[in-house]
Every structure is written in C-alpha cells, then in structure tokens.
Predict the 3D structure of the following.
Amino acid sequence: MSQILHTVFRFARRAALAAALLAPLAVIGGGSADAVAADKPKGDPLADKLGGQILFFDAQPPSVVSNAGQITAKKVTKKDENSDKKWVIHMMIFLKKPLDVNKLDLLIYKHDKKGVMGEMVHKLEQFPSGDGRSFYFVVSLEKYKPVALEPNFKYTFKAVATTGGVAEGSIELNGKEEKIGGSNLDFTNGKDDKPVVEKATEPFNAEVTKENLKKVIYEDCKTSASKGGTAKVILTISPKDGKVLKAEFEEKDKVPYSDGTQQCIIQRFAKMKTKPFTGDQKTITYKVAL
C-alpha cells in the first residue's frame, strides 16, 4: 500500500474565505463575514451542506469554489484501475461536528453482485490535522491486496471517529479480473477449485493468534449512545480448525459499552480464526478499547 497523503481544510472564524492547511485549495462560502454566527468559531460552508458524506473524485477538487454544488458536480461513482493495478482514489470527508481526537478509521465494505453490502474487507487509518470539518485525502488501493479487494464490485467507505460513524460514501472499483497465485479462482461467484484444509501439526501459536486478533475490526461497533473505555474479551478456540468456539466479555457487568455495541464486538471476534494446533482447546483473553 503506497503512502497515504492527506490535506486538511480549515475555515476562518469570521470570514467566508477558507484556506487549506496543506494544499493551495480555498473555498469561498456564500454570505459576508457578518453572516457568520458568533457562536460558530469554526465556520465550514461545505461541511454545513455536505456533513456526513464522503465524496470521490478523479483528481484533487477545484482550487476555488463558490458553493457546494461545484464540488458535488465533480464527484464520481466509478473508478478504473491504473496500469499498476491500483485504484488511486481522491476523496473528501465532510463532518457534521469537529473531531474530538484527530484520528479517523476508514472502513471499507464490499457489496455483492446484487448490491447488498457485506462485511468489512479493509481498514485504513487517517490522522487529519487541524480542527475543521472538511478533509481531503488520497488513498491508493492495490487490487487483490487484501484478496477481497476485487474489481467490478461496489464498495462503501465509512469514516469512524471515537464517537462512532461520522460519514460514508460508495464507489464502484472496476478493472480486469485475474487468477491469483496460479489457482483457478473465479471471483465472479466466490468459488475456487478445491478448498484447502489446514491440519494441526504444532502446539498453539500465541504470536500468530495475537496478530489475527489485531486484524479484527470492531471500532465501528461503537455508537453515539455507547460509552467508551476498555474491556476484555474471552475466547475459547478449537484445536481442530483454529475457530472460536465461544466468545464473551470478562466481567460482563463491568463492561462500559451498550448492549448493542457489546453484541457487535462479540460477533466480530467470534469469526476470528487462527492456525489449528495440537492438544486441547485454548482459552485466551484479549483487551479491546473504544
């Protein structure tokens, strides 16, 4: 994955003219300085109109715009792969409220051929600077890395902050379908030639399991109605196939999250899988934080 670039927009306190912090991109909002309310020290005309949305573009948005319509007119809903078998995606994320922590997780969900959104297939971390509500990013996604990033599918990007989901948008990523690793994989129907069954030959591998646990994405389980904090998840793992037999919170009555958030987190960890191992089933504890 190539380095992710980002540019952040910040709007002045009492002026309609906004200047980008990291790129020469200015936005002119409608109205005069006197029209900016005194109780809104960080005015952002674009975010006021487009808050909660992620828009995608073929290139960096215009340097100067007079209204949100000039931005939305440039948006795209499809993107073709380039010669390096990558999708270089320009996007703008518009928030309804400023971030309390300058960190956004971009969670990518793949839709099936019928257009139904499925599970998350990829995650990107972004660290915007400034205290505005409009952010510009360029991300590069490589085809089949991870394997679930297949061409000719629709993908939904969800921006998640510490308070929960803050914006989302969808785009279709197009390209040439290929065979991966010499195996006859048909990505149009999700089937392959022969499923590979891994057999247990070694004792439980704690390091491999820890790495697999780190890949479990649960941050988007948090809703605005749920408190933050830390908790511990207890997992019982089968030696035969490395799958989770049981997942639950330790000291459930002390878990700070809402019931819905707890259920969502447990469902995510219940799908975790590690290498099969010899011996008896294993029970481990893993710390989560929201």
